[in-house]
Amino acid sequence: MKYRSVTEIIGPIMIGPSSSHTAGAARIGRLARLLFHEQPERVNIHLYGSFAKTYKGHGTDVALIGGLLDFDTFDERIPQAKELAKERKMRVRFHEEDAIMDHPNTVKLRLEAKEKSMELVGISIGGGKIEVVELNGFQLNLSGHHPALLIVHQDRYGVIANVANLLAAHKVNIGHMEVSRKEKGREALMVIEMDQSVTDDMIESLERLEHITQVAKLNE
Amino acid sequence: MFRNVAELIERTDRDQISISEAMIRQEVEVTGRSREAVLGDMDEKLKIMEDAAKRGVEEDIRSVSGLTGGDGKKLEQYIAEGKGLSGDTVLHAVSRAMATNEVNAAMGMICATPTAGSAGVVPGTLFSLKDKLNPSREAMQRYLLTSGAFGLVVANNASISGAAGGCQAEVGSAAGMAAAAATELAGGTPRQSAEAMAMALKNMLGLVCDPVAGLVEVPCVKRNAAGAAIAMVAADMALAGIESRIPCDEVIDAMYRIGESMSESLKETAMGGLAATPTGRELETKIFNISLERS
């Protein structure tokens, strides 16, 4: 079951006007920011389906930008996010796409800063709940039913074992796990679904492990 | 976890508990939070809802587009003049539902229940019943949990997204949730709550999502009004002992299938329905011309 907690139905507390097109969009932007680890210099945002058709009216644009500026769904600065992005020197461009995606509320974000770039495809499935379907070209097969970790890392021996050991030390059980890589020895992605939530301290510990570049949690 | 309404009712029967209690117990089990934390979270959200409804009926709310605002306040004044035809409890539910949704349209702070576009129905109904039934603070928190229990079933078996299932999935779900919670608040049984949910949602089936200019304003504010009124009437019918011929879970399933067969133009794309009427199109042009000049 996708929705597990009553807080997903009664909530989130948010700035209007749309839970899927405003709050969900802010959450996707913020998750991308979290994974990127810093404020990007340039962001290209591709909108699909209902997002492409109605983003201006729903404030989807300011919500995505607000999320990229690390604002939560209830941050009252969201309506001014465009001006704030300009002040903070984050350039954002929107692209309205015609392609039909599996989900009507789909957005692709490409974040860039200096040498670094990241691409994330997210969907907003209703009531503010979001899912990530693609990260840096890796397809994610998350059920969305359990707390999950996304870990971008270098493809080296021992990295997976270190992550598993750390989770075990905190009595976190892994229910499902996938590891994919583009090329031997290059960038790889671990997707871990767990029976327990991980704390912020554990995220920090994971980030300190060798060869790990990005860590983010989903579905608390 | 309860997967459907039948399992939820079975659980309340087995343990001789209310729906809100079943929701609390499940929430504690699934999230690992304490009972106090679950109720405390609802109280925090209740405060946001109270502020939004209050702002909407007291202040002069106006959305950025200028399309909506002030109608909740207008209705509140009309009720105060003693002219209401529908009875003050129903009308107060309506005025506060509209007020909340107007605050949402003005990019104010609200709590999604289950979505922002349908955020007026659940609190609007609650605040009207607060005047009538004088419930304890915990009873109000429990009202939200009962709404949430039914909302969870709908979200997992159908949809709460207008883009996926039309307005029936948003205001329809909210009306069902509010009807079920109102029934419990008024002393009804879990079974009666399920009947109320079924009867409210039945009357919202097929409702499309056709927002003018893609804004959560027209017709959303007035659909929240009707959602609150339907919730109240459905709760009264259930409390009177009236039952839905089609069981609640099957109504939810019908809502899902209707949403699947609904044209894309009627699912939050602003391409059909009221959005595509001459006036709808005219408003759209006017709004976006203005905003272009501004930027």
Kindly summarize this structure in a few lines.
The complex is a heterodimer of chains A (220) and B (295). Chain A is α+β, with helices and mostly antiparallel strands. Chain A has 2 domains: 13-135, D-3-phosphoglycerate dehydrogenase, domain 3 (60s Ribosomal Protein L30, Chain: A, 2-Layer Sandwich), CATH 3.30.1330.90; 141-220, Alpha-Beta Plaits.
Describe the structure.
The complex is a heterodimer of chains A (220) and B (295). Chain A is of the alpha+beta class and 220 residues long. Chain A has six helices and eleven strands. In chain A, the strands form two sheets. In chain A, strands 3-2-4-5-6-7 form a six-stranded mixed beta sheet. In chain A, strands 9-10-8-11 form a four-stranded antiparallel beta sheet, sandwiched between helices. The relative contact order of chain A is 0.16. By secondary structure, chain B is an all-alpha fold. Chain B has one domain (5-294): Orthogonal Bundle (2-methylcitrate dehydratase PrpD), CATH 1.10.4100. Helices cover 67% and strands 1% of the residues of chain B. The termini of chain B are far apart. Chains A and B meet through β1, α1 and α2 of A and α2, α3, α5, β1 and α7 of B.
- As a percent range, the share of strand residues of chain A is 25-35%
Q: Just name the CATH architecture of chain B.
A: Orthogonal Bundle
The secondary-structure element order of chain B is HHHHHEHHHHHHHH
The tally of structural domains of chain A comes to 2
Rounded Rg of chain A: 17 Å
Task: Indicate the multimeric state.
Answer: heterodimer
What string, H for helix and E for strand, traces the elements of chain A in order? EHEHHHEEEEEEHEEHE
Number of helices of chain B: 13
Distance between the termini of chain A: 14 Å
Mean pLDDT of chain B: 95
Rounded average pLDDT of chain A = 92
Key traits:
heterodimer, A: 220 residues, alpha+beta, Alpha-Beta Plaits, 2 domains, 4-stranded antiparallel beta sheet, 11 strands, globular, B: 295 residues, mainly alpha, 2-methylcitrate dehydratase PrpD, 13 helices, 67% helix, 1% strand
